[in-house]
What we know:
The chain has 18 helices and 37 strands. By secondary structure, it is of the alpha+beta class.
Amino acid sequence: MKTIFKLMLLMIVAVPNLFGDGFIIIPDPPRPHPGPGWRDPFPLEVKYHDVKVTIDGLVAKTKIDQMFYNPLDHRLEGQYIFPIPEGAVITGFKMYVSGKEYKAELLDAEQARKLYQEIVAKSKDPALLEYTGRNIYTLKIFPIEPRSERKVEIEYVQNLDYDNGIVKYLYPLNTEKFSSKPLDKVSVKTEIKSKNRILNIYSPTHETRSERKDDHNFTASYEEKGVKPDKDYLLFINTTQKGSVADLMVWKSDEDQEFFLLTFAPDDKEFVTEYVPKDVVFVLDVSGSMAGEKLQAAQDALVYCINRLKDQDNFQIIKFGTQAEKLFTSFRKADAETKKLAETKVRKFESVGGTNIEEALKLALGEKLTDGRPYYVVFITDGKPTIGERDEAKLAEKLDKDLIKGKKVFTFGVGYDINIHLLDKIAMKTGGIRNYSPPNSEVEVIISSFFGKIESPVLTDVVITASLGLTLKMTYPSEKVDIYKGSVATFTGLLEGNGTITLSGIRNGKKFTFDVPVSSKDEGEHQFIPVIWAMRRTGHLLDLLRLNGESKELKDEIIMLSKKYGLITPYTAFLILEDEQITNNQRPPLSPNLKDADGFQDISPTVFKGDFENLQTKEGMGGTTASEQVRDYAGADQLNHRDVEKKNTDPGKNNNGSQVSIQDAGGRAFYKNSGYWVDSYIEYQKNKGLQQINFGSDEYFKLAFKDKSIAQILALGRNVRFMYEGEIIEIIN
């Protein structure tokens, strides 16, 4: 009884801020009993999980549709548990068993604790530690027949937080990690309505598509298939009565480092009468290798971009093969007559000759720069330089500061017989972006889509600086950036002290500034911020290593960041913690029947051999993929960028049976190694003492009571190894 009471208290310690998703636990063995070794309280599969949200002002109505499936040949008895979100009111709950509708029972927090005591005592599974402490809806379900489904429908209403124009909506998806298999589909679709104007929406946790209906109505949509969601869905809605909006979030790590994420949503209606005219140079490779579908697609894309220009814009077209040639003697106004002439000329381009990139760049960057006007070069090629200077380093050196000042080159590599490193260097050195396309008609879609994003700059040459006692370190992006209509700019880094962050940029030749005071820091549930910073830092370092050659210092820092923040890079083969060497401790034998001691294999160094080689190569499909992955890391603003790389390590994709299993808990990355969840912080704590604590013992609960973040770590499983107060703690079962 004493142990059960402590389990109950521990679950209270671990409660997160919000809940919203239900799950079914099977505390008792199936009928007939499958044997003494069976102990899995979560054998059910979640087939799908659909969420529909309507946000009107600061009130959100959430509708949940879940389908559970019993994949076993045994009849089960389960307990459905739905922890009610704080401040929410349940307005609908339906569950059908054998065609009969069942009603759930509302339990207050005290009654819920008694229920959890019973369940945890039976299941012996610490995963529930983070899902108690609230009022709950609960329902006993019997029978859950073999190979049968159970559908649950829930609806609730809640008030949302509002701060400085930002509306925050959180839907806890992470309970779906209890599904025994990946979900066929998970989706969150949100209809948003606001009396204030909506500038844009942004999710730092999931890749979310948004669509503007008008200034006061938006839709947001997230959907994935074949996944087991392991983090909550967070959505920021940037609204304003008048003016741009900036939101500063800060997270303080266990090492007392303060990471920040600043999102800036520009209100283009502040400049409603001002259009930012731009100068654009289109450069098209017409060498012999572009013949056929590639040239046709590039011509179509070029015509599309030309027709998107406005009368105030200027443009130039350069074609190059063995020689480079300008269509006009100098920039021309993008009036209807000139655009029609340009389209006719572009349609007549024929592919012939070699590839003179040197001369094409010289002409493209040689047009006159007008102060206050963005100067963009759209550079399309499918080959390596074969005429003129061919050495990539020397070509990059020719892009001196005076030549490229105020000019951005956006490179588009078509196909795989290209010098990837050269195109990347050109884009990076000029502050542009590199892009790659397969050698087919897809190039038209990629170029057209990209130009649609950059055609309407709101602010150019944007940077952030600190003043009044505040210091910023290792901020990303580290170079000047442009912000385009309808987009959100995100900056991340480390900060010290209090003061002001100033965001400044250029608008029609005039300086624009926006001040964000930093005094009382918001250190809420923003554990994702260090990961986003680490992704950007790692992407920056990988680019330096990839384009300038490997160095021990760069490689060591990449490995350190990858370990510490759970990132997947070509160096991940070095990441699995050899914890026996670190702790000089021989692990005790683990029961093969335990759910959290499933004995994942240590990863083979060959898993990432291909990725590592692609990082070094200058051509081919692997090289373009590596370039795009590093680019996405360097510009990451969502945890999804890391999750995509995690999926690439799935055994079904690397075909060698090895697997990397990574989870975040208490603001740290944990790796699963031979049945143990191992804290990434251990790697950097040499010669530390080791304390072993038995799962469920008095010491175990005493430790959990001290810190909510430690309770979250303990919820990972019965075998955990982590750093706490200067020593290594090992939970053994």
